[in-house]
Amino acid sequence: MRKILQDRSFRLSILLTLIFFGTGITFLLLGLADYSWILFVLLPVVLGISIGALPDHKWAMRGAVLAAVIALFFLLAAGLSGFVCVLMTLPFIIPLMFLGSVLTHLANRYKELKNVDNLPVLLLPLIPFLIAAPAEHMVKKDKEEVVSVQTVQVFAYTPEQVYETIKSVDTLQGEKPWLMYLDLPVPYKCVLEKEEVGGRRTCYFTGGNLSRGDFGGGTIEEKIVELQKAKVLRMDVTEYNLIGRKWLGFREAAYYFDAVGPDSCKLTRITTYTSQLTPRVYWEPLEKLGIRQEHDYVFANLASDLLHRYGKKPGIGE
């Protein structure tokens, strides 16, 4: 271990990684960068280019991976991301760093960046990020991806019974989906102040069950914009505060109640949200998975509440 720590390439790779990723985190804190491909793709690649220029490539990459994990967990400490997001970032951050190091070896025309350990020279690849991140932020300002997620389930209760049970929830309990055991926000209760258009509804969340801390709590404030008892409950989100999810926004929450036969209800839950995360091809499926697990947890609790309140066995969801 002492020999490893004395290796200059190993030490420099740690320093470079902390400088590169530290710059990215600082740009996020200052509002100069977005949660985008510039941060998640370009930054790891240019870091890898610098790492690949170090003489001892093996120990340089090991030091870079170690420092990358440390730097990403700084996002947690700064409240800029949640544990799940950090975990999902690693699978493509590390390969992109490796890709950048490979590019250094293959690009013979950049001989001045090969097998050097001069820190100012090794910092040169950071320049594209310093230029691209603020430029992208200015171009994308106020532009967010709007996405809707829908979940449908049939309950063996009337629409009136389902509506009365879901409109205001005292305490949600039950088996949590697997993401909630990491740090996906866990719905705790929803309080409806006035049952009318314009009325306020507040949903409270607790964090995950990580022994290292509660990273995922917060609240979502909603205002009723459409209300037909046992038919439609649609709300605009007026304020939200979910810890570690600065990149995520919520637009609308809606419930639709449709009669199925004489005594069953098809409940449709739609969440409309915004996201700054790119590339979308990677992040959107993960976002939808998280929201669907939130829906599933609420529906499971609803089934339990209906059974407790009305004494009938819930129907099978579809």
Characterization of the model:
It is a single chain. By secondary structure, the chain is α+β, with helices and mostly antiparallel strands. 46% of the residues lie in helices and 23% in strands. It has helices spanning 2-6, 8-29, 37-52, 57-77, 83-106, 119-122, 127-140, 159-166, 280-310, and strands at residues 145-155, 186-192, 200-206, 218-228, 232-242, 248-260, 264-275. Helix 8 (159-166) crosses helix 9. It is elongated, with a radius of gyration of 24 Å. The N and C termini lie far apart (56 Å). This is Polyketide cyclase / dehydrase and lipid transport. The chain crosses the membrane at residues 12-30, 36-54, 66-99.
Structure at a glance:
The protein is of the alpha+beta class. The chain contains 9 helices and 7 strands.
**The top level CATH class name of the largest domain:** Alpha Beta
Distance between the termini: 56 Å
Major sheet details: 7 strands, antiparallel
- How confident overall, as mean pLDDT? 84
What would you call the structural class? Answer: alpha+beta
Q: Order of strands across the widest beta sheet?
A: 1-7-6-5-4-3-2
Shape by Cα distribution = elongated
How would you spell out the order of helices and strands?
HHHHHHHEHEEEEEEH
The total of beta strands comes to 7
Question: What is the CATH homology-level superfamily of the largest domain?
Answer: START domain
In angstroms, what is the radius of gyration?
24 Å
Helix content: 40-55%
Strand portion: 15-25%
The number of helical segments is 9
CATH architecture field of the largest domain: 2-Layer Sandwich
